[in-house]
């Protein structure tokens, strides 16, 4: 018996894929005429240009936010060194919960673990 | 481009880019327009499903062709977006910008223009090489394959360092012998090909493609040397000069030294420093390399004539005339049955016949201790 057994439908897909050769698993080449290929390329180019602009904008905003945080902390350092030390105090026991899921764009396949128990060590 | 009497079916999107930058040729060059007008309707307005795309030749394939769903509508959106971006870049270009900066912006403004993309795919030989965007695409194509191949051949055949010490290729050098009637020999030659003597018995056509903007009538030197001429006195090989062109004015678009120029008496008198003499390898001599080097003349015109000395020192020549090697090409030749005829054509003496030797290297004199 397999150690990491998956459910039946997934196993079937895995079996089917293992029977196919690697070349069959490649995405299909676009069988387009010259004009449509250039149109396709243009659409892709436009999307890339748009995404680049969006990313640049986001990057600029994040930079500004970071700069603002930095300036606020510098300000705090000047005005009240005690509060600055308190804000920067390392919290040894308080860590990011290791059991927490990574933030993703989509919900997980298993949204909630009902019978969750933290590991013995960290109890 | 489309007459007003054109009955426009509903499916077509019409000419949606009028009064936009990519259809305005008052400031932009006409050469950025689609070269082959028969594709224009299919590319910019959509393919008529009753006729099929123009690029497919067979009628049954044409009729069976289906465009992807909603490609024309999406293309319209993409076109308008990219055209808008291009207009913003054009607005940045003014007289205060340097030439390099202007070229960079021109590339940026035109690199996504579908007409430009179609031209470079469909008619790469007819494009205007004065346009920086076309040169950029040509350079990308060259760097992706031909530059690597030519460097591989130059290094594997030891053109580097047997002739010049090294090469940082800046230009694409292409060579062909258009007097041939056989397609195999009349096309552009792949570096390192072994050619028969009859295929090279007229001077080659040389194309030197610069990718950066160069000044009009920049001067170039082209040298063809054979580093494998047997030298029996010293039991080694010497380098002979087979062909030399000096002070050749070339530009981005006027970049071919071909038959038309060579037949012009003025050109021949001014620029042919050594008449072309093809390699005529003798029987049982090893494969000989015809190494063609292209130099930029960094300090103006070359005044000194090339001497008739037997052993041509290409490195010394390049250094004394401050020539910068920017490209090279190589083909090989060996004795074949057309060699004697070529010798007669050029009035050369009959070739010698060497003994067959096991190794193509010079015989090491007796008494040398390191011979096993």
Automatic annotation (TrEMBL), chain A:
<dbReference type="GO" id="GO:1990904">
    <property type="term" value="C:ribonucleoprotein complex"/>
</dbReference>
<dbReference type="Pfam" id="PF09812">
    <property type="entry name" value="MRP-L28"/>
</dbReference>
<dbReference type="GO" id="GO:0003735">
    <property type="term" value="F:structural constituent of ribosome"/>
</dbReference>
<dbReference type="GO" id="GO:0005739">
    <property type="term" value="C:mitochondrion"/>
</dbReference>
<keyword id="KW-0687">Ribonucleoprotein</keyword>
<feature type="region of interest" description="Disordered">
    <location>
        <begin position="95"/>
        <end position="123"/>
    </location>
</feature>
<dbReference type="GO" id="GO:0032543">
    <property type="term" value="P:mitochondrial translation"/>
</dbReference>
<keyword id="KW-0689">Ribosomal protein</keyword>
<protein>
    <recommendedName>
        <fullName>Large ribosomal subunit protein mL40</fullName>
    </recommendedName>
</protein>
<dbReference type="InterPro" id="IPR019192">
    <property type="entry name" value="Ribosomal_mL40"/>
</dbReference>
<dbReference type="GO" id="GO:0005840">
    <property type="term" value="C:ribosome"/>
</dbReference>
<dbReference type="InterPro" id="IPR042831">
    <property type="entry name" value="Ribosomal_mL40_fung"/>
</dbReference>
<keyword id="KW-0809">Transit peptide</keyword>
<comment type="similarity">
    <text>Belongs to the mitochondrion-specific ribosomal protein mL40 family.</text>
</comment>
<keyword id="KW-0496">Mitochondrion</keyword>
UniProtKB/TrEMBL annotation, chain B:
<dbReference type="Pfam" id="PF01161">
    <property type="entry name" value="PBP"/>
</dbReference>
<dbReference type="InterPro" id="IPR036610">
    <property type="entry name" value="PEBP-like_sf"/>
</dbReference>
<dbReference type="InterPro" id="IPR035810">
    <property type="entry name" value="PEBP_euk"/>
</dbReference>
<dbReference type="InterPro" id="IPR008914">
    <property type="entry name" value="PEBP"/>
</dbReference>
<keyword id="KW-0496">Mitochondrion</keyword>
<dbReference type="GO" id="GO:0005739">
    <property type="term" value="C:mitochondrion"/>
</dbReference>
<keyword id="KW-0687">Ribonucleoprotein</keyword>
<comment type="function">
    <text>Component of the mitochondrial ribosome (mitoribosome), a dedicated translation machinery responsible for the synthesis of mitochondrial genome-encoded proteins, including at least some of the essential transmembrane subunits of the mitochondrial respiratory chain. The mitoribosomes are attached to the mitochondrial inner membrane and translation products are cotranslationally integrated into the membrane.</text>
</comment>
<keyword id="KW-0689">Ribosomal protein</keyword>
<dbReference type="GO" id="GO:0005840">
    <property type="term" value="C:ribosome"/>
</dbReference>
<comment type="similarity">
    <text>Belongs to the phosphatidylethanolamine-binding protein family. Mitochondrion-specific ribosomal protein mL38 subfamily.</text>
</comment>
<protein>
    <recommendedName>
        <fullName>Large ribosomal subunit protein mL38</fullName>
    </recommendedName>
</protein>
């Amino acid at each position: 018996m397999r150690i990491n057994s998956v459910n039946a439908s997934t196993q079937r897909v895995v079996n089917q894929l293992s029977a196919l050769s690697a070349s069959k698993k490649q995405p299909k080449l676009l069988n387009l005429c010259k004009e449509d290929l250039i149109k396709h390329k243009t659409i892709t180019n436009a999307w890339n240009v748009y995404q680049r602009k969006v990313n640049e904008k986001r990057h600029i905003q994040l930079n500004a936010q970071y700069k603002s945080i930095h300036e606020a902390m510098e300000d705090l350092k000047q005005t009240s060194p005690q509060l600055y030390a308190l804000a920067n105090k390392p919290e040894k026991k308080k860590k990011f919960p290791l059991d927490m899921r990574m933030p993703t764009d989509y919900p997980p396949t298993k949204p909630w673990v009902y019978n969750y128990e933290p590991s013995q060590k960290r109890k | 481009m489309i007459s007003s009497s054109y009955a426009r079916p509903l499916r077509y999107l019409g000419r949606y880019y009028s009064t936009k930058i990519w259809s305005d040729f008052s400031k932009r060059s006409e050469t950025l327009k689609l070269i082959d007008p028969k594709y224009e309707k299919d590319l910019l307005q959509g393919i008529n499903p009753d006729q099929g795309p123009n690029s497919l030749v067979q009628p049954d394939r044409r009729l069976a062709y289906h465009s992807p769903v909603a490609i024309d509508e999406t293309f319209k959106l993409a076109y308008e977006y990219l055209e808008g971006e291009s207009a913003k870049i054009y607005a940045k270009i003014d007289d205060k910008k340097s030439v390099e900066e202007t070229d960079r912006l021109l590339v940026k403004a035109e690199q996504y223009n579908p007409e430009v993309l179609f031209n470079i795919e469909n008619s790469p030989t007819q494009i205007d090489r004065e346009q920086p965007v076309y040169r950029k695409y040509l350079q990308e194509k060259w760097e992706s394959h031909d530059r690597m191949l030519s460097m591989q051949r130059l290094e594997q055949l030891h053109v580097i360092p047997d002739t010049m010490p090294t090469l940082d290729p800046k230009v694409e050098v292409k060579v062909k012998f258009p007097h041939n009637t056989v397609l195999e020999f009349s096309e552009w030659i792949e570096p390192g090909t072994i050619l028969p003597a009859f295929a090279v018995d007229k001077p080659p056509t040389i194309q030197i493609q610069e990718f950066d903007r160069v000044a009009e009538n920049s001067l170039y030197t082209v040298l063809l040397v054979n580093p494998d001429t047997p030298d029996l006195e010293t039991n080694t090989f010497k380098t002979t000069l087979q062909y030399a062109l000096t002070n050749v004015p070339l530009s981005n678009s006027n970049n071919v030294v071909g038959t038309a120029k060579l037949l012009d008496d003025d050109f021949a008198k001014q620029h042919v420093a050594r008449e072309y003499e093809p390699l005529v390898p003798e029987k049982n001599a090893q494969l000989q390399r015809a190494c063609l080097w292209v130099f930029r003349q960094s300090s103006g015109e070359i005044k000194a004539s090339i001497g008739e000395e037997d052993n041509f020192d290409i490195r010394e020549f390049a250094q004394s005339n401050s020539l910068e090697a920017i490209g090279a090409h190589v083909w090989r030749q060996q004795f074949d049955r057309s060699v004697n005829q070529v010798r007669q054509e050029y009035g050369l003496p009959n070739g010698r016949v060497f003994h067959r030797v096991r190794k193509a290297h010079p015989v090491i004199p007796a008494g040398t201790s390191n011979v096993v």
